[in-house]
Design goal:
heterodimer; A: 457 residues; mainly alpha; Formate dehydrogenase/DMSO reductase fold; two-stranded antiparallel ribbon; 2 strands; 69% helix; globular; B: 449 residues; two-stranded antiparallel sheet; 3% strand
């Protein structure tokens, strides 16, 4: 599990910085296509601002549709970075090294994408100022601190700030490396400013390592709080199907499930797109798949708790909502699809070593997980809202509009574009961390076997 | 880099461990005290059986004892399993000490039977069985618990066979049943593979069983007897605090083994304290997270049934046990465990563990005495809060006696099975070596696939 990349420092530096200093043709084609999607999304948002939320198809009783589902989904994916990076760093898992940067960057762009959706969904984004910031001292218009509309931005911006700090501290040695190998003076100057004078002295390394560890520990409670608070947007209400005390850990573990799956998908794409075959090995996706087996099973347990304790009180409205989710079309199809995609297909497959070590199958199964997890959020959000009033059992219908599909596609485009831009400007794999791994690598001879080993940090 | 000694280098350097059981002298004050407490537990159990069969309120504090055993003895073997899965080499000297708790966990079954007999019918109250008539909850809970306990014993046995079997000639000379029990152990490659697979499979099964049993019992003996209490996180909270208390119990045991058994104690050091201390700190933080997730929703939604349940278990009726649990399981451990110096000292971290185990008793009191002693368990909302049910002398003796009996049974088991996992420690020492890096002596750990 700790098989290191064996190459000299010069070769490793060149390979890891290759994409930063080169301009492959596909980059422009992909970038162009993604930008096209973003332009379409901007047009949709402008039309929505002109005609109101009804342009997106929202009307009584369902006011939360694809936009909020997307918000929850991307917040979930953003949990990948911290799960993979902070926790694995604290537990000294050697295989984390090539994985961490991509996961952290995914966190940043997922978060930035996620925050767009409540803003769009507010219908009048500029008015969110009233709800979240105490901006108007003269008229005494204060935000309501008991409202999740205040909790959400607080948690998300704290998470975003700390994640950027976390990534930046880890980036410092690589920024210095880019500065030293930059092909022209302008980029050398920019990387030089960003590197904050990092020269690799013993003291700088020590401070950088301690800062990384401290941030790992500090960021964990924030990581847990973010998706908990998102879950409480739903659970603090008394809407049947949402008010369940298990929602917070259920959302967090679901986020980790989809986030780590997204990291695997991204790693596999990076392996081929950025020419990192020597760095992203079968061992890495194998380890992530083992982690995913545990995470997915815990997620399933929390889902069952949500289901059982939804039905437990035999309250008619609660039972009715679950019946709608699990029995009535079209929700039954979505329910079956999500459970099959998120658990029934991938987890039994991951039990086989051959699947865990196959890039193709891991790519397919992790995509399936995220399809399933997106549908799960859809199933949580919409059916609970379809009931027309607290006193009746009549339902409104909700069908997603084309505009919503465009916004969903654009959200993927935004994350991918952000990721690509980052990879173009900065090393997407932590060169310093990987080289440290090579230094710490060793072997132990047991009988005839030569076992990979590592020095204990 | 941390100091090589603290990193567990001693496992590679010290003379190998020869598997042997704990030497327990009946004249030792601690052993004698445990024997007396154990006897007290048996006597009070018999007295309860004779005088209070079917009286639900009288079995409220025995339910606390049951949930205590389920949260300490039944949770402890999980550490052995989880560390094996995660290849945590620091845990090599801990695994048998943890797995041995499968023996005293059998007490939970003995406690469950009379408690189940005192439960009211399911009709008319919230429950997890949704009309299932296959003997629920009596047979189903008893069946689930017995499967969990048998799995725990099997896990202990499979991991102990290489240590207790001895050389193949000895195994061949055994009577057929005993030989079968020893898996005809000859140490062949096939047998080692089987052993590894059995340990991993049974471990996974045990973990799932542990969570499932907690879900069943926390609902059938807790939530479902207090109308209006509907909390999906409560079973998970129970399982989590069980793991917290299980780790604390192991740490206390490690400290005692190191003090009273020089042969085994030389393998138990600060490395184990540090690793378990970190996990303990994580569980302490999760205690708060799970509690807060529960509390916030009930407080925010203000549904009458949930508010009444919260007032009963947190705010009014059992506020004293709640505060004690809060201090002993969260505040005191958190304040102490954030210091590296505390986590890296076995004595200090075991001291913190005593608080946690004591806090668990109060935590279980607030959650299980109220429902078991609730005279009106039917309906969907509590119309008035139940009066507090404080323990009488027999209840206190029962609780103390049962906890003593649990540790007495553990001591008995430890005196018969080698207290450390000899074969795993030998394997682990082969995968460790000492090396000079720059000017420091460091530990190198091998991790085969």
């Amino acid at each position: 599990m700790q098989e290191p990349v064996v190459s000299d420092t010069r070769t490793a530096n060149r390979e890891l910085l290759d994409f930063v200093f080169s301009w492959p043709k596909w980059f422009f084609a992909v970038g162009g296509a993604l930008n096209g999607l973003l332009v379409a999304a901007v047009a949709v948002v402008i039309l929505m601002l002109m005609f109101g939320l009804q342009f997106l198809g929202y009307s009584h009783p369902v006011y939360w549709g694809f936009l909020i589902v997307n918000f929850v989904f991307w917040i979930g994916v953003s949990h990948a970075g911290i799960m993979v990076s902070a926790i694995l760093r604290l537990t000294q898992a050697e295989w984390r090294r090539p994985v961490t940067r991509a996961a952290e960057v995914l966190t940043i762009f997922s978060l930035l994408t996620a925050v767009q959706f409540p803003l769009i969904h507010s219908g009048r984004p500029w008015r969110t100022m009233y709800w979240t910031f105490p901006y108007d001292w003269n008229r005494g218009a204060w935000p309501n601190p008991r409202s999740p509309l205040v909790w959400d931005p607080s948690a998300i911006f704290t998470y975003l700030t700390s994640t950027i700090l976390f990534v930046y501290v880890a980036l410092l040695p690589d920024l210095a490396l880019a500065r030293d190998r930059a092909p022209n003076r302008i980029s050398r100057a920019i990387y030089g400013v960003l590197a904050l004078g990092f020269r690799g002295t013993t003291r700088q390394w020590r401070i950088q390592a301690i800062a990384g560890l401290l941030l790992s520990a500090i960021i964990l409670p924030i990581f847990v709080s973010v998706h908990s608070i998102v879950s409480w947007d739903f659970a603090v209400t008394t809407v049947p199907g949402w008010h369940n005390t298990v929602f917070a850990p259920y959302f967090v573990i679901g986020a980790v499930h989809s986030g780590v799956s997204a990291v695997v998908t991204v790693m596999i794409v990076m392996r081929y797109a950025f020419g990192l075959k020597r760095f992203i090995k079968r061992d890495h996706i194998d380890s992530l798949a083992r982690l995913l087996i545990v995470v997915a099973t815990v997620w399933l347990f929390f889902f069952m708790l949500d289901l059982f304790f939804g039905l437990y009180g035999t309250e008619p409205a609660e039972v009715d909502t679950w019946q709608r989710r699990l029995v009535e079309p079209p929700w039954v199809v979505i329910a079956i699809t999500f459970i099959i995609c998120a658990y029934v297909i991938p987890v039994p497959m991951w039990l086989f070593r051959g699947v865990r070590r196959s890039f193709f199958w891991m790519f397919v199964t992790t995509i399936l997980v995220n399809v399933g997890m997106w549908l799960e959020r859809y199933m949580v959000v919409v059916p609970a809202l379809e009931r027309k009033s607290g006193l009746t059992f009549t339902y409104g219908d909700y069908a997603p509009s084309l505009s919503e599909f465009i916004l969903v596609a654009a959200s993927f485009a935004l994350v991918i574009l952000g990721f690509l831009t980052f990879a173009k400007l900065l090393p997407i794999m932590p060169a310093a961390d990987i080289k440290e791994g090579q230094i710490l690598a060793d072997r132990i001879k047991v009988g005839r076997a030569n076992v990979p080993a590592a020095m204990r940090e | 880099m941390i100091h090589p000694e603290a990193a567990g280098l001693h496992l590679a350097l010290r003379p190998p461990y020869r598997p042997q059981a704990l030497k327990v002298s009946p004249r030792h004050a601690g052993a004698a005290a445990l024997a007396v407490l154990g006897a007290l537990g048996v006597v009070t159990y018999v007295v309860k059986l004779v005088t209070a069969w079917g009286d639900r309120a009288a079995w409220a504090y025995p339910t606390v004892a049951l949930m205590f055993v389920l949260s300490t003895a039944t949770a402890a073997p999980l550490v052995a399993y989880a560390s094996r899965m995660a290849k945590g080499y620091w845990a090599l000297p801990v695994r048998r000490i943890a797995a041995l708790y499968a023996v005293p966990s059998l007490l939970s079954f003995v406690l469950l039977i009379p408690i189940m007999a005192a439960l009211p019918p399911l009709e008319g109250r919230s429950n997890l069985w949704f009309g299932f008539s296959g003997g629920a909850p009596f047979l189903t809970d008893a069946l689930a618990l017995s499967i969990l306990l048998l799995t725990g014993l099997a896990l202990l046995w499979f991991s102990a066979v290489p240590d207790v079997a001895g050389p193949p000639s000895r195994v061949r000379a055994m009577p057929p049943l005993r030989r079968w029990l020893h898996l005809n152990w000859a140490g062949t490659q096939k047998q080692w593979k089987l052993l590894r697979a059995a340990n991993l499979t049974l471990g996974a099964f045990y973990l799932m069983g542990y969570v499932y049993v907690h879900m069943l019992l926390s609902t059938d003996l807790g939530q479902s007897l207090l109308p209006g209490w509907r909390s999906g996180i409560f079973p998970a909270y129970n399982a989590l605090t069980g793991i917290q208390a299980g780790i604390a119990t192991i740490l206390i045991t490690l400290a005692l083994v190191r003090k009273f058994s020089p042969e085994a104690g030389r393998f138990i050091g600060d490395e184990q304290a540090s690793a378990l201390g970190k996990i303990l700190l994580a569980t302490v933080l999760m205690w708060f997270y799970f509690f807060w997730s529960d509390f916030l929703l009930m407080w925010y939604a203000r549904l009458p049934g949930e508010v009444a349940a919260m007032q009963t278990t947190v705010a009014i009726t059992y506020v004293l046990p709640f505060l004690l649990a809060l201090f002993l399981m969260l505040l005191i451990p958190f304040v102490l465990l954030i210091f590296n110096r505390v986590r890296q000292s076995l004595t200090l971290v075991a001291g913190v563990s005593v608080f946690i185990v004591a806090g668990l008793v109060f935590d279980r009191i607030r959650f299980y005495v109220a429902p078991m002693a609730n005279p009106e368990p039917f309906g969907h909302v509590m119309h008035e809060l139940p009066a507090p049910y404080w323990p009488n002398a027999l209840d206190v003796l029962f609780l103390v006696g049962m906890i003593g009996l649990m540790f007495a049974v553990y001591l008995y088991a430890a005196a018969r099975v080698p207290i450390l996992n000899g074969w795993e420690m030998r394997q682990g020492s082969m995968l460790r070596k000492e090396r000079t890096f720059m000017r420091a002596r460091v530990l190198v750990l091998g991790k085969p696939d």
